[in-house]
Sequence to fold (67 residues):
Amino acid sequence: MSAGKHGSTPAAWTLVVLVTLGFIVSTVGLVIGQWPVFWVGVVIVALGGIVGGIMKKAGLGKARQHA
Fold:
């Protein structure tokens, strides 16, 4: 592993927070048997990926290092 930031960027944290929140919402929806809540969680997970990607392209993520 590199001694660098290892993904500690606003884009990475936003992605992690949104995906975690989406999984929690989906799990609660699944456990209580409410399918609309489950699907809201799935949408939150997808939005996490989209928002994280947009933030990375906007310069808020870590650039890839070529070997």
The mean pLDDT is 89. Helices lie at 10-32, 35-60.
